[in-house]
Structure prediction request, 922 residues.
Amino acid sequence: MLYQLLSNHRCYFSKLALCLFIITLPLSVLAEITQPEITNIKARSEPSQIKIDFDKPLSPWSAIATGNYYISDGVRVLDARLSINRKSVLLDTTPLNENSTYKLLTFNIFGDTDSDTTPPLFSVQSTDDPTMLNVIFNQPVSPSTAQNIDNYSITKDIDIVSATLSADYLTVALQVSPALEPDNTHTLVVTNVSRLKAAPATTPTAPTTTKPDNNKNNIDPDNPLPAITLEADSALIEYNSMARLSWQVENATSCVGSGAWSGYKPTSGTRNIGPLKGNSVFFLTCRGPNGSSTKFITVSVLAAQQPVLEFSANKMAIPKNTRPVISWSVEDATDCTASGDWSGEKPPQGSEQLGLLTDDVTLFLTCRGAGGSTMQSLNITIANPPTIMLKTSRSTVGYLGIPTLNWYVTDAESCTGSGTDTGESPPTCGGLGIDSSHNKNNYYNTSEWYKSPLATQGTLSVGPLCVDTTFFLTCTGPGGTSTDFVEVKVLESQPDIRLNANRAYAKPGEKITLTWETLRVNSCTASGGWSGTKSAYATNSEIVGPITEETVYTLTCKDQRGRSAERSVKVRVKTETPSPVTDIDITPPPPNKNLSSLPTPRSVTTEEKPVPVREHTFTTEPISSNTDNTDIENTPSQEQFASEWQIASDRTFTDLIFQRIITGEDKLVVPTGLLNRNTDYWIRTRQQDSAGQWSAWSAVEPFSTQKYDANDLDSNDIDDQFQMVGFIDTNNNDKDDKQEGICNIYDAFKKTVVGIQASQGVLRCLSALSEDELEAAIKSDGQIDSMPYGLFNFKIEQLPTNSSATEVDVIFYFEKPLPAESQWYQYDKTTDTLERYTGSAEIDGNKVTIRVADGGPGDLDGIKNGIIISPIGPMITTNKALIKPVLMETATTIGNKYGIGSSGVGFVILLLLTFLRRRITL
Prediction:
């Protein structure tokens, strides 16, 4: 931006700004000067053009003179053009920088004299030469009228000898005779001196009219008047700075200064004058053999700056009985005064420590200078020490349990977690061993609590814990430091081992790989088909063999107390390699024709790499066109009945995260919540024909998931369009849901907020599904009346896997109570089916409790692995005919799914299928 001066005041405009700078001569008789005023300043789109609008037409010769404009920082005015209406000037300049501040001044911009007939105003100034007077006009005057001596008269028989107009057309030097006597009063009358209507071709010279030749003071043309050159290094200087003048005079014997300087001057020289505090006019009158001449120059002085004050305290909020330190610094000021809750005269710069404060104080500091005064205030408050609320989801956990810490702190700026109130390294489980499930990315480490700083509110799962641990939270704020803690005890557990072989069957002479993981052990010994001391820590592997007969491998491990655990694995030897999984999982109706051989496996393909996190689809390679009767669907006697899919987080498939059998499909749609971001996985599949025979497993296909989820830019697992922030209390207990382990999410239509909480594990809200997204599944079901909230995708992790069944109560908190006859539905993205939920559902007003089981009802990953993923939601109906017994509804739905009717035989087959299907998931 540019800024300008207007009669010692600054003016500010949007991008470029200019103001008229009025020269005020230090003459007591100079009348008020009225100049054209600027009404608008605008920077053109070009970086080197400025448009100035005035309130009246301008004198063309003054408006187009580039020397009448000044811009700071070395910007030069190249051209000045006047508009047709003579009220606007367009300046062409050297380039201006964007977002920069410039200072621009204008000089000698006058109104249009063609339409202004007001006579110019003038003042009279005496000189050191009693025969010389200076008549100073407020506007440029016509040379022909200004240098006509008949237009001037002085009382008391004083004659006008000559009238000489200055180069700026503003000053007329009158030579009089006889000399003026001191202390006498004279009257000067000026008539018929007119304004300058256009810029003359030449500068004014000697007077054009003189007295008759008998005047004794006639001027000899061969002896010209003194020629004076008077200049200043700068026509504009800062307030209270020096002006540097230089002059050169010809045809003169002596010179006298007047105006802003005085005294006799040499006929040439340079001098620093000042410091100047206001606009100043310097006159130089020089006498020679043929008379005297006068020259003047104006030096404009910027207005004094208003004091700029910086006033601060080392802390704006302090504990009670603390002494704050006050600091201040001011520019362009001579003195300062304190008031309010402190007092006294203060220097322009300093610091001061106040006394002990017990209450809030307000301090004022006023500083004065030539440009005015500035006042600032400080409010220093007494702050309370931080208030800490620290809780744990479980005060007692099993070995390697993972509790959740919740905290909320007020009046704090930073917090630090530790193991004691003075700081301590995080507890470790070194030497005890940790199984692979506790090394996954979705598990938290206790050391996260010890990373500094912690937010002033948050939720963090810590662990796995192997020893009793105390978590301290220390927070510091303006009011001091506070500490709170919670203690989590770890129950004593027995040592545990996991031992696996990479295959259950081996060819004669083939080698196999044994892998084992230990938990809470210190030493291990091998026996049976292998021997020796084995590593007791974390995950290990060893190649054994070659195998020639059925062999049993045993691993015995002991903990620090001598308690032992033993695991064995059997490897059989056969010429044909059977399936490495359990017996046939589903027995379809018998085919009409017999098969001659087992079906051939088909490989898994995926087009996207890396794989998206949400709802990715895997397919199998197309059926070949050959006539090999081992290809499913290629031989008339065969039909593909089902496919089985497995996804694991390790290449050996010992750590499965998904296992499902899908009837009639050659593709797998991965449900939301199954895959984590930026993680490596492995997938395989096999197919079953209509005779109930399974192919071998396909080749293992590795894949990775994308590092970022486009639907979850903040990477907190919640779909951004359903995410909620701020204080939320869906269970109406005046506490923030986040502090109680309740996750919040918008319903599918983004109208209401729903809270979801799990009785154990860590629950994460993911997204919501609307009726539109479930349209095909709803139509196939035919029972849905209204789904006002849609379905809710959620994921529960960190569930125990060492028990036969893990059931979790999932509590939903709705904005309004649900009708007692409301039904609950579960959507299976893998099969695109919407079914009545067969698990427990208890409705209590706006609170609904759903019971889900790891690897059972409500879990779509198909296995018991410590993780539950499920989209569930309510269907509300007023049509009693739509409400049917859950068992009958389930039987009809699944029966139709497998091509079984509702007869008694179909129902018995259904129960058998359900039993077999549950066997594979245990």
Observations:
- The CA atoms of residues 113 and 197 lie 5 Å apart.
- The longest strand covers residues 291-301.
- The radius of gyration is 49 Å.
